[in-house]
Amino acid sequence: MAEAQRTPTVIADGVHITYTVHGGHPGGRGGATAALGRMLNRRPAPAGRKVHAVRGVSFVAHRGEAIGLIGSNGSGKSTLLKAIAGLQPVDRGAIHTQGQPSLLGVNAALMDDLTGERNVILGGLAMGMSRTEIRERYDGIVDFSGINEKDDAISRPMRTYSSGMGARLRFSIAAARSHDVLLIDEALSTGDARFRRRSQRRIDELRAEAGTVFLVSHSNSTITETCERALWLEAGTLRMDGPAKEVVAAYEEFTARPGTEKANK
């Protein structure tokens, strides 16, 4: 194995993550209706439900790797990414990172009422780029996103964008600079095949620039085309860690079993 691949960038050591879910169940007397009732009657809010989202997960990621995270809905993939990015506290165990991880960089910073152009500037600043760097990379970011191919969408407010257009612009901003660790949650499931190919090439470039890429996607083909390694999380536990094609094949066999879909709801 090459030296670059043997340099650890992320170490997860027996990580446990829990969080609390507040509110009632959909369809019942819960959510906003229940909250309003408590306010009018001055009743205290009920205790939240504890969710043990990640259970004792351990792995080591190396510089130059692209690692896919797969698993059923609610298996802990996005929670684990947030923990690696430092946005979600760990209850037990530890996560060690080299450099600064970026969770697709700019989701929280972009504002729906601002134009795409203003959001490119805002997102670039949020990722630590100078205004000069943003000006130099602006045309490339817009061209990469492809949102201007049919009309001048970059000059319209982002609230007028489809979810796919917004995701493509976010990825384009985040991919405009190199990252020690780039964490991508579902961004590549949007857009046409041409955009996905551009995204995969950019991920390869980021890896070549000595970064590490984590990718969460419900598209197994995206995982096998983009990543050489995959982690399979199920009910918060790490079921398998290995070559992407082998892990995806095992996961697909698991999901094809009778009763699996019902059990995972």
Output the keywords.
single chain, 265 residues, Rossmann fold, three-stranded antiparallel β-sheet, 9 helices
Notes on the protein architecture:
This protein has 265 residues and is an alpha/beta fold. The chain folds into 3 domains: 19-51, no CATH class; 62-100 and 179-265, 3-Layer(aba) Sandwich (Rossmann fold), CATH 3.40.50; 106-178, no CATH class. Helix content is 36%, strand content 25%. The protein has 9 helices and 9 strands. The chain has helices at 31-41, 77-84, 116-126, 131-145, 163-174, 193-208, 220-226, 244-255, 260-263; strands at residues 8-21, 49-62, 66-70, 92-97, 101-103, 181-185, 212-216, 229-234, 237-243. The chain has a 6-stranded mixed beta sheet, with helices on both faces. Strands 2-1-4 form a 3-stranded antiparallel beta sheet, with helices on one face. Helix 3 crosses helix 4, helix 3 (116-126) packs parallel to helix 5 (163-174) and helix 4 (131-145) crosses helix 5 (163-174). The longest helix has 16 residues, at 193-208.
